[in-house]
Amino acid sequence: MARKRVRVVTKRDVIPDLIKALEELNKYSVEIGIFASDDSFYAMIANVHEFGITIRAKGKALTIPTAEAKGRKASEIPGLFQPKGKNILAVQDGDKLITMFILVKSVTIPERSFVRSTFDEKNDDWVKFVEGQLQQIVDLKIKGKTLYERLGALIAADIQDKITTLKSPANAKLTIENKGSSNPLVDTGGLRARVTWRVVKQV
């Protein structure tokens, strides 16, 4: 069987454009997370959950609010006192006590990684995504910066999904009562909403 020759004809030399497109990949990178420059409070919250932390009282004790405190500080609740022999702050209501705060020496917030764990779980998927995007660069359909923008959006969405679905370690019973929810990383949705990405130019 005779070999069939294939002749490829291009209307113009695309090599310079291809080199330029590939070189652009080295000019940018993508950063994903919760940036302190956008919101330092949520950046701190993210760091606490990602790595865990033990908070110790500087004074006699930490005051952990119950649902009865309704978001108020101890100084904002009249008649608040510590019953003898009890590690609580309460108010008297007739013959009964209403506990407003639990007094503890320390509180440990366990590690609930949602950034590193997502990278571990999704890395192979992201590699396949990038391979497909590189083919589009070779075909001169997109630019290098566009690849990073798409990758950033994908990773941020995966991290947000992790925040929504993470169930362990579970919240403490008191935390669940205060939040009205058992999802350990979701209260108002502020943490999830602040997961974002940005394409930065290399200097």
Architecture overview:
Helices cover 38% and strands 19% of the residues. It is rod-shaped. The strands form three sheets. It has a three-stranded antiparallel β-sheet with strand order 3-5-4, with no helix packed on it. It has a two-stranded antiparallel ribbon with strand order 1-7. Strands 2-6 form a two-stranded antiparallel ribbon. Helix 3 runs antiparallel to helix 4. It is built from six helices and seven strands. With 203 residues, the protein is of the alpha+beta class. The longest helix is centred in the middle third of the chain and has 23 residues, at 116-138.
Top keywords for this entry?
203 residues; 6 helices; alpha+beta; 7 strands; two-stranded antiparallel sheet
Short précis:
The chain is 38% helix and 19% strand.
Order of helices and strands: HEHEEEEEHHHHE
Helix content: 25-40%
What is the average per-residue confidence, as pLDDT, rounded to a whole number? 84
List segments where confidence is low: pLDDT < 50 over at least 5 consecutive residues: none
Strand content: 15-25%
Query: Alpha-carbon distance between the termini?
Result: 57 Å
| 3D shape | rod-shaped
Number of E-type strands: 7
Task: Kindly report the spatial arrangement of strands forming the biggest sheet.
Answer: 3-5-4
Question: Largest sheet, if any?
Answer: 3 strands, antiparallel
Count of alpha/pi helices? 6
The structural class is alpha+beta
Global Rg: 27 Å
